[in-house]
């Protein structure tokens, strides 16, 4: 059985007024259009052409969710749980109201996802950069107290532990002065090979002044995808989409643990419990490659 399905764009603040409209051949929107969901997830099931919603047809049984995503501004830095973590977290929060902004788990499913770029340029932060590279980048910052402390924290322990403890410190609310120093240092930083990264982080800082997520973003790999190129985001991988139009396919879930660049709830302890801080590059999948 074939069904024609549609859905209304979700109006998250980071959405574009032009990208989805351009894809669909219509006039730009008066407000942000961020995501269109094509699935039966209870958070926003797709509309069926002859009336009703897709979940009434499927019984909510689809294991996947497809989305169009159009970002004019950076999304929050985030990570998604494994299936086991999601089940445990959802059970712990069973007594919380479904709309409670402090709730971490909206369902009991994992959310691995793959995004394919549709726009000429799709920018993303994905995974944590090896510390040898990050130290070279930070060497180009002025030696202010906050920058010195960040360098020092990143030198303690093995790489995953140094990154985990540093992210926890940045998001703890006790690192505001250091965050301000690092963000101020972006103005003059100029490390060879990091021109695109620094331009992107400066733009993120301009939109999120004094947000500790800006410094978390500085620890991450910055990627530019072109049409047809894709990245796979496994459970535990820190990421944030920065700008562009793409199509996502993911497990049917709305579980998001945030790590900055957002006014929404950030549960630092839960984030640190599920994030994988092993550094490394995230491979780009290109059309025709196996």
UniProtKB/TrEMBL annotation:
Q: Does the keyword Isomerase apply?
A: yes
Coiled-coil residue windows: none
Boundaries of each Phosphomannose isomerase type I catalytic domain copy?
3-131
Catalysed reactions listed for this entry: D-mannose 6-phosphate = D-fructose 6-phosphate
Reported cofactor(s): Zn(2+)
Provide this UniProt record's keywords sorted from A to Z. Isomerase, Metal-binding, Zinc
For this protein, the record's CDD domains field holds: cupin_PMI_type_I_N (cd07011)
Instruction: State which Enzyme Commission number(s) the record gives.
Output: 5.3.1.8
Question: Which Pfam families does this UniProt record tie to the protein?
Answer: PMI_typeI_cat
User: Which PANTHER family is this protein grouped with?
Assistant: MANNOSE-6-PHOSPHATE ISOMERASE
Which family does the UniProt entry place this protein in? Answer: Belongs to the mannose-6-phosphate isomerase type 1 family.
Q: What's the protein here called?
A: mannose-6-phosphate isomerase
């Amino acid at each position: 059985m074939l069904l024609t399905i549609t859905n209304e764009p979700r109006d998250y603040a980071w959405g574009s007024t032009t990208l989805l409209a351009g894809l669909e051949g219509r006039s730009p929107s008066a407000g942000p259009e961020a995501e269109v969901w094509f699935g039966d997830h209870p958070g926003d099931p797709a509309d069926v052409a002859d009336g009703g919603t897709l979940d009434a047809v499927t019984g909510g049984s689809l294991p996947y969710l497809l989305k169009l995503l159009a970002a004019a501004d950076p999304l929050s830095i985030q990570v998604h749980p494994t299936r086991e973590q999601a089940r445990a977290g959802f059970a712990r929060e069973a007594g919380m109201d479904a709309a409670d902004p402090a709730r971490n788990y909206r369902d009991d499913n994992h959310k691995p996802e793959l995004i394919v770029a549709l726009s000429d340029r799709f920018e993303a932060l994905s995974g944590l950069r090896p510390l040898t590279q990050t130290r070279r980048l930070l060497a180009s910052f002025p030696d202010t107290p906050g920058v010195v402390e960040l360098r020092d924290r990143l030198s303690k322990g093995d790489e995953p532990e140094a990154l985990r403890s540093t992210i926890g410190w940045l998001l703890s609310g006790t690192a505001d002065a250091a965050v301000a120093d690092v963000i101020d240092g972006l103005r003059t930083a100029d490390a060879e090979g990091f021109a695109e990264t620094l331009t992107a982080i400066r733009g993120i800082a301009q939109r999120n002044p004094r947000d500790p997520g800006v410094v978390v973003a500085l620890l991450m790999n910055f990627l530019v995808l072109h049409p047809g190129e894709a990245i796979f985001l496994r459970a535990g991988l820190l990421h944030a989409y920065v700008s562009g139009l793409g199509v996502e396919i993911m497990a049917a879930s709305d579980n998001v643990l945030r790590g900055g660049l957002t006014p929404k709830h950030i549960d630092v302890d839960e984030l640190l419990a599920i994030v994988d801080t092993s550094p490394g590059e995230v491979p780009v999948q290109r059309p025709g490659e196996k």
